[in-house]
Amino acid sequence: PLHYQGNTVMEQMQCAGVLETIKIRAAGYSVRMTHADFTSQYKIIWVSLGDMEHTPATPPELCRAILETAQVWPEEGAEVRDVQLGRSKVFMRNPVYNALQCIAKGLQVHNATAVQSAARVARSRALVARLRYEAQQRAQLCAAEAVARAPVEGEWALGAWERAEAMARGAVAVTEDAAIHDLMTSAHAARDVILQNAAEMEAELRRALAQAQKEKEEREAELQRRAAEEAAQRLDAEKQELQRRERER
């Protein structure tokens, strides 16, 4: 009793993991995380920046993929290693831990802003669709009122149709301006916050403007087609009225 056998104590400490803990603390790895905790906290780095075509099969492989994506994994043959990947844990010194925290936080803000931007764009498009529908309804109502009030023949009918067409064009133009203004506002607000995605936001803006211009041209073509059809119908009606009067004479 009261005597220690060195070999036995060494075996017990090794089995209990005490020696490994002492070595880790002596090496200065102040941060220790299990593979599950590490991937749960920093998986956003690999999901946002990593190669999604090659999915790691095991937790240790995913941990290494995260470290490599964050560019904190030591090079081969490096004498100083600020991070070590164990069988069940990841050991890090403060510089690596701080770098991972900074990257993860930045990506969280970036992704949250992207989601908010997408929500603003969706809300803007819904508003534009509603304004477009209301403008079309107003244009149809104006056209119907013009038909009901105008005489059947002569310049009064033509003027009524022209006024209705002008009101429809004005309503569509107002809706189009609101759409372009709203999309521009959303795009610029997102671009100011997400500096890393400036190219993507500019592409989205160009696509939105091109789509808005395309829709505007389609609506103008539709208005022209309707105006031509209505003019033809008016001419036919006037011709039939003239023929009827000739027969009555």
TrEMBL record:
GO terms for cellular component: cytoplasm; membrane; myosin complex. Residues 1-105 form the Myosin motor domain. Residues 210-249 are annotated as: Disordered. InterPro entries: Myosin_head_motor_dom-like, P-loop_NTPase, UIM_dom. GO terms for biological process: actin filament organization. SUPFAM superfamilies: P-loop containing nucleoside triphosphate hydrolases. PROSITE patterns: MYOSIN_MOTOR, UIM. Keywords: Actin-binding, ATP-binding, Motor protein, Myosin, Nucleotide-binding. Pfam families: Myosin_head. One of its GO terms (molecular function) is ATP binding. Belongs to the TRAFAC class myosin-kinesin ATPase superfamily. Myosin family. This is Myosin motor domain-containing protein.
